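Feature request, filed as a ticket because there's no other form

It would be nice if the structure record came with a short human-readable summary line next to the tokens. Right now we just get the raw output. Example of a typical job, pasted below so the devs can see what we mean:
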Amino acid sequence: MATAAAFFLAGCTSGGPAESGGGGTSAAVTVPPSTGTPEPAAPSPSPSASSGDPAAAGLATFTFPDGRLSFTRPADWKAEVFEASASPYVGTASIYDASDKQLVSIYYGQIADGVSGPVTRTVFESVPVPGLQGRSTPEAHASFYVDWDDDDATYHLQLTAGAPATGPRDAVKGIILLGDRVLTAEVLFDDQQFPDDKSARAWFAGSQGQALKAILASFTFR
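Raw output as currently delivered:
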């Protein structure tokens, strides 16, 4: 049974681009060949990048129009926001690489619903989101995992409420509760799935996988 999540938007108003990034050469989400040959590992941060200054690390900060939710992204990528409703608040954001390929979808608002079904899960990595710690229960994590439904595998890189566990489980809803707001954020694979777990791990260890993980782990809320 596949996971489904629906978000009901009310009082829609027109929105538009919030910002745009400069030119660059970042690749879109790609699935490695079945050989599983790893990409080169992402370079270690320079001393200036480890200082905590996003600009020094080649990052740009995006903040939703309400001023409460923020995240960082590579400076040569862009983020666009659409405010569907002011009351109750409902907004969405999309992150694009320099070739205008949408890589991440974000929902942020006061209305949410979701359903799930049983799967068998393998978790590759799940790390807490520092800027959301103490803001939600269970606490938000950036998680990369695969769900098996019979013979069908679906790979996910997304925010999860708590750390997902390996084994027979219900599908993850990915809804983070932030006071009167809810947040979901997931990487879009455009129906492209990895041929096996080895290939998935190799992609995740590469520069693109780590950049996308960093976006999910960068959320802050005030």
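Something like this underneath would help us a lot:
Residues 1-28, 30-51 have pLDDT under 50 and may be disordered.
The radius of gyration is 17 Å.
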